[in-house]
Amino acid sequence: MTIDNQQPLEDDDAFGQELAKLYRTALLDEQFQQQVRQDLQALPTNVQADLLPAEQVFVQEETLSAAAKARMLDMVPPCRQPQAAPVKPQSWWRKLLAADWASSLLPGPAFSIPAALMAGVLFGVLLPTLLPSLQQPEYVTRGGQVDKGIVTHPDTQAGEQNGITDEVRQNPQQWLAAIAELLRQGKVAQARAELQAFELQYPNYRP
Amino acid sequence: MYNDTVVDAQYRQLYERFCQGDHRASIELVNLLGDRLLRYIRRSCIYDSYEAAEDCVQNTWAKLVQYCGKPVQDSSFWGFACAIAKHQAIDDYRANTRQKRNPGEGMGHLEDDDQPALADHDADPAKQFEALEDERESQGRLQSFKQAVAGLPERQRQALTLQLAGYSLKAIAQHMQEKDETVKSHLRYAKNKLKRVLVEASQGLDRVVEA
Known about the structure:
The complex is a heterodimer. By secondary structure, chain A is an all-alpha fold. Chain A is built from twelve helices and no strands. Chain A is rod-shaped. Residues 1-9 and 143-152 of chain A have low confidence and may be disordered. Chain B is mainly α. Chain B contains nine helices and no strands. The longest helix of chain B is centred in the C-terminal third of the chain and has 31 residues, at 180-210. Chain B starts with a helix and ends with a helix. Chain A: This is Anti sigma-E protein RseA N-terminal domain-containing protein.
């Protein structure tokens, strides 16, 4: 297609519409905006003032309002938004003094339930069975002298003072007879102490 | 007006500092980028009101804030910000159009500009190719149009700009302080040149496609 520049073409509507569309699209390019701005600014100043509002923006240097700038400055990047401070582990004594100390100190049910069962077995079955066999025999020294290396019963010491020997205490009948002798002699307090010692030594004694 | 490379490096640096929490950088960036974005949005003639354009700038800024920490892929930070602003403006325009059910006059270019033409023809490679060709042709025509307008003499360009902005012949003559016949002549010569350039651009593209 050959177009002669000296013979202008007719201004057809379709081409005019296409130009208008291209112009609008080109306005999305900042360089093109600058060119339009320069052309409009080249117009006389009094004419510039008469331009429509859409073209006024090209001859004026508009700026954002202070309120808009303030709103933009209020927007904080996601990385700078306030986050929960890292929790520092509390010391044990602080936990103990805290109002809800029990909730942090008590173990969870996964531990506490088996532990409670084990404790029940220990205190209810094993200890009553084992403890009697673990009782140590009581040793009493002669002559009222207490051997510090040997555990002695206080009542037994008292018994020596009451004239009841260790040999007598080995035989319950003799011990009871010695206690009866003390009662006869009027030594009620000594007899009562010896009787308590006898009951400890022979709890279920039946003559 | 803007030395692109230097200014873009400055934007990028300020943006990085802003994302790291530098308040001073955010003030500087808002002052520099905010005003420029506002003028860009206003001059793209998408919004009629200053307030709507200001809202668009704020929404663009909000998206930039959300983008903090991610790498800016575009070679130009300003181009990146512009693209966000443009998409925001197009979204606003579409939302507004849906709300009013009365599309604004002369804004059809926005519908075309951001339409992914391939979306409707995903399944058909031939149609995809056609859509790609259409897209390339329209981009080529736009580029040719911009170059041709830039190459026009100043008076012709002024007359054409005013006419494309919607002024009547009489108003253009009045604004340019010229006779009607002179303005007509300016317009005729300008349009002839544009038509020639656009036809040549189409023919050039056709040759490329044929080759």
